[in-house]
Amino acid sequence: MNTYTPKPIDTSKVNLTDDLLELTEHLAENTHEIWSKQRMGEGWTWGPERDDKSKKHPDLIPYADLLESEKEYDRMTAMETLKVIVGLGYRVRKS
């Protein structure tokens, strides 16, 4: 029986500056690049449909070519990470 209940840090009141919102897109793209590199390192290649047995995945393409729904998944991960950083009192500044 699974009794795990996710309890992420509440970031609903954290607002990101325009600079950090811009950074979100860079982080999202990098997240996709890291995921792609890891998959390819495990022997996965592009395929029109996901097939775990033959290690094919339709998202093994450049970030710019992803469907918006797939980009949004990476954006949410990046944005929530930045919100946690800011919410915990850290500052992110471009030098």
Automatic annotation (TrEMBL):
MF GO annotations: ryanodine-sensitive calcium-release channel activity
Keyword Metal-binding: no
GO cellular component, one term: calcium channel complex
Coiled-coil blocks: none
Residue intervals of the Ryanodine receptor Ryr domain: 4-93
GO BP field: release of sequestered calcium ion into cytosol by sarcoplasmic reticulum
Entry superkingdom: Bacteria
Entry-linked Pfam families: RyR (PF02026)
Entry-linked InterPro entries: Ryanodine_IP3_receptor, Ryanodine_rcpt
Key words, A-Z: Receptor
PANTHER family tied to this protein: B30.2/SPRY DOMAIN-CONTAINING PROTEIN, B30.2_SPRY DOMAIN-CONTAINING PROTEIN
Protein name per its UniProtKB record: Ryanodine receptor Ryr
